[in-house]
Amino acid sequence: MQLPDNLAYADTHEWIKVEQDGSLTIGITDFGQEQLGPLVYVAMPEVGAQLKRGAESGVVESNKTASDLHAPVDGEVLAVNELLNDTPDAINGAPYEQWIFKLQPAAPFDAAAFMDAEAYRKMVA
């Protein structure tokens, strides 16, 4: 299982990358996509939507199940990965390259509120 050290991880299986401008890039972890199997659909939030921490922000679906995506922090959706509309299974082949949405957090990101790679690995073991 891949787990890049430069990301933060939520217990709901999203990864979070803090960008240089303070925005966040969010996707689903390798473990999360592995549990779902080949993805057939990704519902993403609308650009400009105001999300609340922990609120449902989208859905990833496979042939066998669906899983909600959750906003890691309060913030505004800056962009969504339009590529996933046509090829949702791109996440399966590259879960840390295929982001789902970008968020401008309402407050500075607090990495201490999330897991690092080692803690996430222990959680899913």
UniProtKB/TrEMBL annotation:
The modification N6-lipoyllysine is found at K64. Belongs to the GcvH family. NCBIfam families: gcvH (TIGR00527), PRK01202.1 (NF002270). Binds 1 lipoyl cofactor covalently. The gene is gcvH. It comes from the Bacteria. The glycine cleavage system is composed of four proteins: P, T, L and H. The glycine cleavage system catalyzes the degradation of glycine. The H protein shuttles the methylamine group of glycine from the P protein to the T protein. Residues 23-104 form the Lipoyl-binding domain. Keywords: Lipoyl. InterPro entries: Biotin_lipoyl, GCV_H, GCV_H/Fam206, GCV_H_sub, Single_hybrid_motif. Its cofactor is (R)-lipoate. The keyword Metal-binding does not apply. This is Glycine cleavage system H protein.
